[in-house]
Design brief:
The complex is a heterodimer of chains A (about 450) and B (about 350). Chain A has about 450 residues and is mostly helical. Chain A has a domain of about 200 residues. In chain A, about 75% of the residues lie in helices and about 0% in strands. Chain A is built from 21 helices and no strands. In chain A, helix 4 crosses helix 6, helix 6 runs antiparallel to helix 7 and helix 17 runs parallel beside helix 19. Chain A is globular and about 70 Å long. With about 350 residues, chain B is α/β, with parallel strands linked by helices. In chain B, the strands form four sheets. In chain B, strands 7, 8, 9, 10, 11 and 12 form a six-stranded mixed sheet that branches. A three-stranded parallel sheet of chain B has the order 4-1-5. In chain B, helix 3 packs across helix 10. Chain B is about 40% helix and about 15% strand. The longest helix of chain B has 19 residues. Chain B folds into two domains: about 200 residues, D-Maltodextrin-Binding Protein, domain 2 (3-Layer(aba) Sandwich); about 100 residues, D-Maltodextrin-Binding Protein, domain 2 (3-Layer(aba) Sandwich), CATH 3.40.190.10. Classes of the chains: A mainly alpha (about 450), B alpha/beta (about 350). At the A-B interface, helix 3, helix 8, helix 9, helix 12 and helix 16 of A face helix 1, helix 2 and helix 4 of B.
């Protein structure tokens, strides 16, 4: 790519982000136009688009599957029932509502796909928010933020974490030992911020309706089948890859969507056309276009060049490199999808560690696992940066975009600036807490 | 860190974006490097930080050496101008990261072709530009005593290199009980040796020959022992996955060798090409050229820029160079060497 093309890509990407940030045009249209500009200028060619589709197919399949399953479940009355239980558990307290939200979302997102989990939980959270007479936007933003941060709790919680961890041969147990505590810390810092970020909800006290008015399931068999589809999807998310026919989570989501549509069709409760019409196509289109833009950014090679800069800037001071990872990758992940950022960063960091002679050149291999203890903090810094950076902006993570899409469909659109108002302070606090954690980790792993 | 356990593997699946769908940053797409080189208009060639005869810079900033010449030939083939090369000096530990992160398009830096580098690092060697071996350099005064008997000697060697592992293997196999003095870099190893901290210094023979040129006390003060303890085939390297680029780099090298096989030199090129059999043997037809993705006449341009392999060798490391190395294994197969070019057709 020529220098001019690099400038064009960066310019187009910046223009798209600014157009979204200042609400100049619809975010899906902005991303689509940006992508088309790069196609017309021959910067994104057929190979790039195919590569972007290959990357985007996974997350989009996951979201599509989650949307269809959630749409079918919404006709069963299950969400009303669970929402009712949740509402009772809050006792009418906004504070309890927010804290319970964290308690429910975090463990689920530690093991399940974040954005899909947000889709599935959104109807329940919205029901409770409406019942408590609070703005649905803030709980949905909190749901997205918690889902992203919870991805740090386990090695499998977030694709970026898994990508980094698996690239250095980190086991599930090793992850729990070295990283999970930091993830917990990143979640914990959200709690003291809530009274300041969401004071109107935090202070809410409502009198709940009497228990006799509880929701009921009208068609138990239909609800049972729909829930069975949901259960199968969740089990296969965790164990699908261990089956003789390896089922990756995006495949599981597609299978679940097919089963849910079959259940809906057989029960004659909801026409398939209605279900498919209600899929949030705009969010899916936006994500697809963003992945193409990220592909163009990756093609510039700017990230890869950073490996040399890292060495020039920090020499062999690994703790500084680890902290730079948190800040740098965090910043990039707030504007780009974190998976490609993490993928490019792994190459960058491994290159740096080889160039700085911490490890032999064989460390560039995918199979190398003999990482010296002091280098681990650098990779952990990458995990925190990639996962938590996405919390800062509306476009930083798929879960944020999904949450915004859901709110828009409820007539409460989330603007870039509004998300930023909540996302940025949380991200700064989380990255600061991560920096302290990584600093301590680097010290103990010397 | 240990490999993932089966239990973790079962749970790990949270990998909801299939890993298969994650972009491969390290592996290149087919044709990517040539497209980048053409768009940029400059070939980025990774070379050493300065090894006489292979890649070194003079006071005026002019690069020379056999590795440098190869890049010039490649630039001539790909871009039509041998001057369109940006040389990127790299220390040993930087070379593969530089290749992987696309800082360079080709690595032409006395790099040994090994299974590890192709298998684990996914790099691909285009061929052998120079057949080298690992050898020992000792003070000339002790050369006769040490030859074949480095028993118990302290030997300077660079850390984290195959040179060190070869030395250990040689010591074990010969029962020489050599004591390696491991230095952090080639430069540190050199300084330690010339400071008298080691009885010998081990590295590639060509590198030791280059060191001799600037040895304190002159090249007569030191000698390279006849022992050769490893095979070090050095050649240009490209990123894995880019077959089109590998093909061009490989066939530029083979063109240089083929030209020597036919006694075609830079000087007689124009005349010799009038001979249909020579032309047929050195100039591929347009169909083949189009599949490679370069302008017709690329083999001629490569030869015009640096001459044939023998000329390149002599000028930089051979008889007409300060190093004065014999052709040996680097001679043509017809003269008992290992250099052989498959037919260009």
């Amino acid at each position: 790519m020529s220098a001019m093309q690099v400038y064009i890509v960066v310019g187009v990407f910046a223009a798209v982000i600014l157009a979204i940030a200042f609400n100049v045009i619809d975010m899906a249209v902005a991303a689509l136009v940006g992508m088309c500009v790069l196609i017309v200028l021959n910067i994104l060619d057929e190979q790039d688009l195919l590569a972007a589709v290959r990357i985007a197919a996974g997350p989009i399949s996951l979201l599509f599957g989650g949307m269809v399953v959630a749409r079918i479940l919404s006709t069963t009355g299950v969400f009303d029932l669970i929402g009712d239980v949740y509402l009772r558990a809050t006792g009418g307290s906004g504070r309890r509502f927010l804290l319970l939200l964290i308690v429910v979302v975090a463990p689920l997102c530690a093991l399940l796909p974040n954005a899909t989990t947000v889709i599935l939980l959104a109807p329940i959270i919205i029901r409770v928010a409406v019942a408590l007479e609070v703005d649905i936007v803030l709980p949905m933003i909190l749901t997205a933020i918690v889902s992203n941060a919870a991805g740090l709790l386990t090695l499998v919680g977030d694709p970026a974490t898994f990508l980094v961890g698996s690239s250095i041969g980190m086991t599930f147990g090793n992850y729990l030992k070295h990283v999970s505590l930091g993830g917990l810390l990143a979640l914990a810092v959200v709690v003291p911020l809530l009274p300041f970020l969401m004071p109107d909800i935090w202070r809410v006290r409502r009198t709940l309706p009497p228990a006799e008015q509880r929701a009921r399931i009208a068609r138990p068999a239909y609800a049972g089948l729909s829930l069975a589809v949901l259960a199968a999807m969740m089990v296969l998310f965790v164990f699908g890859e261990a089956l003789p026919t390896r089922l990756l989570p995006p495949m599981v989501a597609l299978i679940a969507s097919a089963l849910a549509l079959l259940v809906g069709y057989a029960a004659k409760v909801e026409p398939t056309d209605n279900v498919l019409r209600d899929v949030d196509w705009k969010t899916l289109l936006f994500l697809a276009c963003i992945f193409c833009l990220v592909q163009a950014m990756a093609k510039t090679g700017l990230l890869q060049v950073m490996s040399v800069k890292l060495y020039e800037l920090f020499g062999t001071r690994l703790t500084l490199v680890a902290l730079a990872m948190i800040a740098g990758i965090g910043l990039l992940s707030s504007l780009l999808a974190n998976v490609p950022v993490a993928a490019a960063s792994i190459v960058m960091v491994k290159g740096y560690l080889v160039a700085a002679e911490f490890v032999p050149e064989v460390a560039l291999s995918d199979q190398f696992t003999q990482w010296p203890a002091p280098t681990i903090a650098v990779f952990v810094g990458m995990m925190f940066g990639a996962t938590l950076g996405g919390n800062a902006t509306l476009v930083g993570a798929a879960a944020n975009i999904v949450a915004a899409g859901i709110c828009a469909r409820e007539g409460k659109p989330i603007t870039f600036v509004r998300f930023l108002r909540y996302g940025l302070p949380v991200t700064v606090a989380q990255l600061a807490a991560s920096a302290v954690y990584v600093f301590a980790l680097a010290h103990f792993m010397r | 860190m240990a490999a993932a356990s089966p239990i973790a593997g079962a749970v790990l699946l949270g990998l909801w974006l299939s890993l298969a769908s994650v972009p491969s940053i390290s592996n290149a797409a087919d044709g990517e490097a040539l497209a980048s080189v053409k768009t940029r208009g400059v070939l980025r060639c990774g070379v050493s930080e300065g090894v006489a005869g292979f890649s070194s810079q003079d006071a005026a900033g002019q690069w020379s050496g056999i590795d440098v010449d190869f890049c010039r030939a490649l630039a001539a083939a790909a871009l039509g101008d041998s001057r369109k090369v940006a040389f990127v000096p790299l220390k040993a530990s930087e070379r593969f990261p530089a290749l992987e992160t696309r800082r360079i398009d080709v690595l032409s830096r006395n790099t040994t072709w090994t299974l590890l580098r192709e298998g684990a690092l996914k790099a691909q060697f285009a061929g052998v530009l120079f057949y080298d071996n690992q050898a020992f350099m000792v003070p000339a005064a002790s050369a006769s005593q040490l030859a074949g008997a480095l028993k118990g000697a302290t030997v300077c060697v660079q850390k984290d290199t195959s040179t060190l592992s070869h030395l250990i293997a040689y010591s074990d196999a010969s029962g020489a009980d050599i004591k390696p003095l491991v230095a952090g870099s080639a430069d540190e190893a050199r300084r330690a040796f010339f400071a008298g901290r080691c009885a010998a210094y081990t590295a590639d023979a060509s590198y030791l020959a280059a060191l001799l040129l600037h040895a304190p006390g002159g090249s007569q003060a030191f000698a390279i022992l006849p022992e050769r303890i490893s095979k070090e085939p050095l050649g240009p390297v490209v990123r894995g996955g880019d077959q089109a680029w590998l093909t061009l780099v490989r066939w530029v090298l083979l063109t240089l060798i083929a030209a020597e096989e036919m006694d075609v030199t830079r000087e007689n090129l124009e005349i010799r090409l009038r001979n249909p059999s020579v032309s047929r043997a050195l100039v591929p037809d347009d169909t083949v050229t189009r599949t490679i993705g370069v302008e017709p006449g690329w083999t001629v341009r490569a030869l015009e820029s640096v001459g044939n392999y023998g000329q390149m060798f002599d000028r930089n490391v051979g008889a007409h160079s300060p190093l004065g190395l014999a052709r040996g294994t680097n001679d043509l197969w017809t003269r008992g060497g290992l250099m052989y070019a498959p037919p260009i057709r």
